[in-house]
Amino acid sequence: MFDERARYGRRLRRSRRAARRWSVLAGVLVGATAVLTPYSGMGLIDAVWSAAAGGAVVLAGWRWADYRSLAAQPVPTATDTAVIADQAREVLSRLRRHSARRRLRHTDVGPGWRRLDRATDVLAGLPMRTGGPAETVTLEAAAAESALRDLARRAAGLQRALPYDASHRSLGQTHDALVAEFEHGVTAYEELVGAAAAYLAEEERTASQQPSLNHLTETTELLRGIAEGFVELRPASRPTG
Questions:
Q1: What residue numbers bound the domain in which 14 lies?
Q2: Quick check: 142 and 120 in contact, CB under 8 A?
Q3: Lowest-confidence range among 26-30, 138-142, 167-171, 172-176?
Q4: What is the DSSP letter of 163?
C-alpha cells in the first residue's frame, strides 16, 4: 500500500541519523576518557569510561556499515500516486465495513451484511477487464452495494427504535419489510457475482483457444487427404508370370 521509494528514503535517513548519533556519542566518550583518565593509573570509574567509549566506537562503526550497505542497494521505483490512492481507499473502505459489521452484528441484518461483505470481496478479486460488459457489471454492482448497505442501516435503526414504539405494529411491519427487501437484495447480489464469475470463466476459456493450433489441425487433415489421394492414383503393380 505504501510507496517503496519513500519507505526506502525514510529507512536511509533513519540509518544515517543513527550513525551520526553514535559517532557523536563515541567522540564525547573518547574525549572524556582521554581527559578524565589519570596518568598514574586507571581506577574503576576510568575503566567504565573507557569501556563505554570503546563500545560507542564499535556501535558507531556498525551503524555506518549498515548505512553504507543500505545506501548501496538500488533505489526502488516510485509507485504511481493513483495506485497508492486506490490502495488507501480500499483500506479505508475495509475499515468502515468492519466497523459497520460490528455495529450491526446483533441486528436482524447482521447475517446478510456478512454475506454482502463476502460477495463484495469475491467480486473485487475477479479480474474484470475495463470496457464491455465487465465494466457495466462493476458499476451496477457498486451502485447495488451502496443501496443495500443504506437499506441495512435503515432497518437496523428501526430495530433499535422498536422498544420505544408502544404498539410495535407499524414500526415492526416496516422493519420486517426492510429486512426482507435487504435479504432479497443480497441474494440477487450474490447471483450477480456468480454470473460475473461464470462470464469471466467463459471469456478466459474462449481467449485461451489458440487459432494457430486449430490451423495446424486443419493443415494436418489436408496433408493426410492429399497423401491418400496419391495412394489411390498409384497404378496397381502387375503380377509377373
A1: 4-72
A2: no
A3: 167-171
A4: G
